[in-house]
Amino acid sequence: MPTSQRSIIDLPCIADAGSFARYDPFGNGRQVIVRRGASMGFPYGMQSSERLVRIGDLDVRLTRYTALLSPPPWTPGSTPMTAEAARNYKPESEVLHLPDAEVLIRRAPNGFSDDEVELILAAITLE
Question: Are the C-beta atoms of residues 91 and 81 closer than 8 Å to each other?
């Protein structure tokens, strides 16, 4: 994969520190996170699947990960965690591995649908 290609993400940007940026593609608070340079290589969790998607004239990997977060400790007398609440501690995301960036797209819980992911991918070009 040529490293000279630069990605352009045509989504509403809400924060950009150069190597780390946040985008709110649909204006509803759900964010796409982009890491560049030294911020790349973040441990996203356990890989569960991978597929190739076409960005411009390049096939790039879109990898699904499941993270495992630690819930707060249970204390006697507290309400047991519901299955829905437990899903918050096993979030699923997809990461688009571009030549110069990693694009993190949350899928579950409360993430982006398949159709929304396609719109996000369509907003990415390579120079």
Answer: no
For residue range 85-124, what is the model confidence (pLDDT) as tens digits? 888 899 999 999 999 999 999 999 999 999 999 999 999 9
> E strands within 58-119?
58-66, 92-97, 101-108
pLDDT in tens, 8-63: 999 999 999 999 999 999 999 999 999 999 999 999 999 999 999 999 999 999 99
- pLDDT-derived band at 81, boundaries 50, 70, 90: confident
Q: Which residues pair with 15 in a beta bridge?
A: 22
Place of tokens 């965690």: 81
Q: Which of 118, 113, 104, 115 is nearest to 32 (CA)?
A: 104
C-beta of residue 91 within 8 angstroms of C-beta of residue 67: yes
What is the distance between the alpha carbons of residues 4 and 29, in angstroms, rounded to a whole number?
32
Q: CA–CA separation, 37 vs 108, rounded Å?
A: 27
Q: Cα dist. 55→2, 14, 33, 88, 127 in Å?
A: 13, 23, 18, 30, 11
